[in-house]
Fold this protein.
Amino acid sequence: MKTNPGRFFEDYRLGQVIEHAVPRTVSGGERALYHALYPARHALCSSDQFAQSCGLSASPIDDLAAFHVVFGKTVPDISLNAVANLGYAEGRFLTPVFPGDTLRSTSEVIGLKENSNGKTGVVYVRSRGINQRDEVVMEYVRWVMVRKRDLSAAAPETVVPDLKPALTVDDLHIPEGLDFTNYDFTLAGEPHRWGDYAISETIDHVDGVTIEEAEHMMATRLWQNTAKVHFDLTFRPEGRLIYGGHVISLARALSFNGLANAQMIAGINAGAHANPCFAGDTVKAWSEVLDKAQTDAPGVGAIRLRLVATKGGAPFALKGEDGRYLPHVLLDLDYWALIPM
Amino acid sequence: MKTNPGRFFEDYRLGQVIEHAVPRTVSGGERALYHALYPARHALCSSDQFAQSCGLSASPIDDLAAFHVVFGKTVPDISLNAVANLGYAEGRFLTPVFPGDTLRSTSEVIGLKENSNGKTGVVYVRSRGINQRDEVVMEYVRWVMVRKRDLSAAAPETVVPDLKPALTVDDLHIPEGLDFTNYDFTLAGEPHRWGDYAISETIDHVDGVTIEEAEHMMATRLWQNTAKVHFDLTFRPEGRLIYGGHVISLARALSFNGLANAQMIAGINAGAHANPCFAGDTVKAWSEVLDKAQTDAPGVGAIRLRLVATKGGAPFALKGEDGRYLPHVLLDLDYWALIPM
Amino acid sequence: MKTNPGRFFEDYRLGQVIEHAVPRTVSGGERALYHALYPARHALCSSDQFAQSCGLSASPIDDLAAFHVVFGKTVPDISLNAVANLGYAEGRFLTPVFPGDTLRSTSEVIGLKENSNGKTGVVYVRSRGINQRDEVVMEYVRWVMVRKRDLSAAAPETVVPDLKPALTVDDLHIPEGLDFTNYDFTLAGEPHRWGDYAISETIDHVDGVTIEEAEHMMATRLWQNTAKVHFDLTFRPEGRLIYGGHVISLARALSFNGLANAQMIAGINAGAHANPCFAGDTVKAWSEVLDKAQTDAPGVGAIRLRLVATKGGAPFALKGEDGRYLPHVLLDLDYWALIPM
């Protein structure tokens, strides 16, 4: 068979490194499309001059656009036969991505655990995005539940990686040259700096976006993510499932209203796609400040945020009495952002 | 509160200058998206070589794309609490915008008038788009009706600016170097030059476009326009209102068929969004020649046009016996364009 | 009348050369949009580094993106009054198109044949895309059935051009410098090389895409194709007809899964739009290997493929017992691609 059937659980080996296909050169086209698909307004990823005033050579593409490019490449090898995307951890953004850069991805298998039903198993991979200078631009751990092809295949030795529940500020990498001492709060859009946010403070980002089929499919294709469930209504007649990353980007863009100065994502501690999202849903977002820390870079603080996307319900409600996500919660993301002191 | 509640009528002061947030570097991505969203075909904004044959350094982005970028930045400060966008005047396009340019916007409050109901007032602003060399690329006056936050707030002194009913050709600024003496009418798409248009001539542009939700939202997001009514069906269950600028761009692009040589917009004299537009509407356009003038630039004539967008009805019908716009009229725009002599 | 009524059958003369309007400079924006609209993943058109490893200066835009730009320009002069797009032949891709290139198009009338009904005729044109260095980037023959304006107009002498049923490998032009001897099959996404494909082998490309109105209209506008039937629901209330080229690009992109290494299109032998396509249809694709040949370029083989797009039905079924295309077949395209040996 010439077409890609995807890997099944028994195809993964501990320590295996998978080099993913189809490298991608990004341009101003990817940035314009990102801003057409999401209400993204963080000034650092909008203006070369603003980025230069913060010590960068030019305006990088949005961190999540780079993430999607890196993630999309892993789909044909990691999640084509996945029945669930279980979690993220230890995500670190190491080098900004600029128009003209070319990205490719690799994944290393760092854990395997067959489920007791004998039909599926959990695969843990550490994926890396690498640019044309062989610099790692980001890395993150993801674990997915994957079907077995052959139910009689022997279970591998169970290895569950020891993952940090959250990165500390020392784990974060500040982009070289980043300097917020001359930060222009007026051009950035809000006056709130690091010191204005308190741990456990919550912010309702107010705005909402009703999603259309054309939008999420254009986004998902742009990231060269090939999962059938997002595109083919004959494959999934109950409705095309929206790529979880689309919801992450929507929520992050909506969070501008209240967190306009959380300019760059430095780390992803954890993430859960709590419920599926479909065209017609109206996505809103709220945030909670989980932690704060100072960094060594001039004027640059770090803020740890919970970002929650919803498709209804009141802000700030996350889980029910049973400890499960409420049905209107789409995303629960825990990340570190860089913000002027 | 960390999120932007927008300004209310009593927050504006005569002479106040508001520096709007989120500067934007534009690229070929914005141009490609503009041409995917609107049937834009004016050769000067499509081909570097054509633009160079007209004396420019490269092909600028469409004048209205630049306008939307500038306008979008003003929304969070000027029209977030607006109940109506009342009018435009004295719009002048001063410097073409090229891929690589970075735009920011400012607005100066030039008029204030509380309405007799004591609940709302009219705010007049002169908005300017400014590039990375601090050159003003365009300016225009807009007035909007804005709610009061506190109905007991004292009314400001009424100042209504003295606005020109229309710009004259002497008010227009011709882009430096523009020269139509070697203009290639074949590559431009139509043979009609300045002398072929007569004052009061009308042109039915024939073509129509049925609008989709995904299109107007992608456009409006690309301009970083944040007004809720365009995006959030839970905020406006009766239907997402299409950004008036989307209709302007559609109508201008449709006017290529009959006005292919009206290459650049030099001025906007007046504009009214006569009725709301929704996804599913089919937009068509017609034009009327209001005036003509010569300019000092070689081979460059000016033509003043009324551009009307409709969502039904016959062309050339504008107002009813009661003097009000007919219900199918979406836009009535009065502008100056530059056209080869 | 200032607007373009299109040419009618009697407006064409044998040997006439029509220079089409609106040249276009392409950028990374066109590439990003192409990849957002189609699930395109061929590495050569995705990564500058991959293209350079194959001997090119940079990553060209997808061959079909260039084709659509060239084709779109011909529409106002060739097919505005066409009642049917009858066929393609002798399509040759001569020079890759890179971001920054500017394309224009010409068509030469090479055949005319009035139909016996006296109401329509067939016009054969050889269209060429030309870049800013006056290099022909591609050429192809297309024939369309066009209405007569004046039924009493005299029929022209019938001239039917002698067209090759298929190009041979000697007719193909290999891009200068193309070299597949260091081809990276891992980054390209599949291990199958020229020798792995057998004549008459068929491949079901498995994946499907359900089409939305916004997508095909954005694509068709981007190519500056002005045919009313694609955009205006009041003109065609039974549904907007999707531009045939949209289906070609969808099918070609879907064929990545099984033909990831068929990197470049070198020739188009024939093509038929078998049935109309509408929003809501789910497009899938299958291919059949029709022929194979070696080329003089290092490591570069040629493979002749039938590419069939469907909107239902089982793969590999093409025509009924009556010799007519089955109702679910959208496209039957016969082309040559370049693939590593």
